[in-house]
Amino acid sequence: MSLDLSPSKWTLRINDYSGFIGSNSTLYKFPPRFYSRLIKVSASSRTTSRGKVKPTWRRSGYLAQEQSGNESYNTVVPLNRPAMFVLPLLQESYQLAFKPVPWLPNLRLRIWEYEERYPDGLGVLGVEPFVEQINQGLEWFPPI
Q1: Are strands 108-114 and 51-52 parallel, antiparallel or unpaired?
Q2: What is the DSSP annotation of 23-86?
Q3: Residue 17: count of CB within 10 angstroms of its CB
Q4: Are β-strands 95-100 and 28-29 bridged in parallel, bridged antiparallel, or unpaired?
Q5: pLDDT at 96 over 80
Q6: What distance in Å separates the CA atoms of residue 108 and residue 96, rounded to the nearest whole number?
Q7: Within its chain, how far is the Cα of 85 from the centroid?
Q8: Is the pLDDT assigned to residue 79 strictly greater than 80?
């Protein structure tokens, strides 16, 4: 069993350039509702107000999944490296929120949603059988 993770199966839902203001800890809630368990996230930054991004910086912020006003999932979003997340789906839809780290005011965040709500096998088998395939699915990401 395998998932079709080709680019045609994904829809770009969030494409926010520098809407994040560093130096504060605001949680940005995104208006679109999401329906699929699979999302891909890319957060990139090349410069800050003080110069270039340091190679030791590994995270861009924190992504939270909210269902019925309650946070049901929270994870770190890596900086300048794409990531794929399999989210719990407790209701029909959910909303995403992002809290950037304060030292990255020049941040581009992009979020893609997989076209299928329950990708074959993810509900029954869990994520483990698909980990390698999911990691390989990150290869098609556009350049950061």
Answers
A1: unpaired
A2: TS-PPEEPSS-B--SEEEEEEE-SEETTEEPPTT--EEEEEEEEETTEEEEEEEEESSS-EEEE
A3: 10
A4: antiparallel
A5: yes
A6: 16
A7: 7
A8: yes
* pTM for this predicted structure: 0.79
Mean pLDDT of the chain: 76
Residue 31's pLDDT band (cuts 50, 70, 90)? confident
**Cα–Cα distance for residue pair 123/37, rounded to 1 Å:** 9
Torsion of CA 52, 104, 17, 67, to 10 degrees: 150
By CB atoms closer than 10 A (0-12, 13-18, 19+), residue 144 is middle
Nearest to 96 by CA among 11, 13, 4: 13
Query: C-alpha 111: how far from its chain's center?
Result: 5
Contacts of 79 (CB under 8 A, 6+ apart): 43, 44, 45, 53, 57, 58, 59, 60, 104
What domains, with CATH codes, occur in the chain?
7-131 (2.60.120)
Q: Render pLDDT for 105-120 as a digit per residue (tens, 0 to 9).
A: 678 889 999 887 666 5
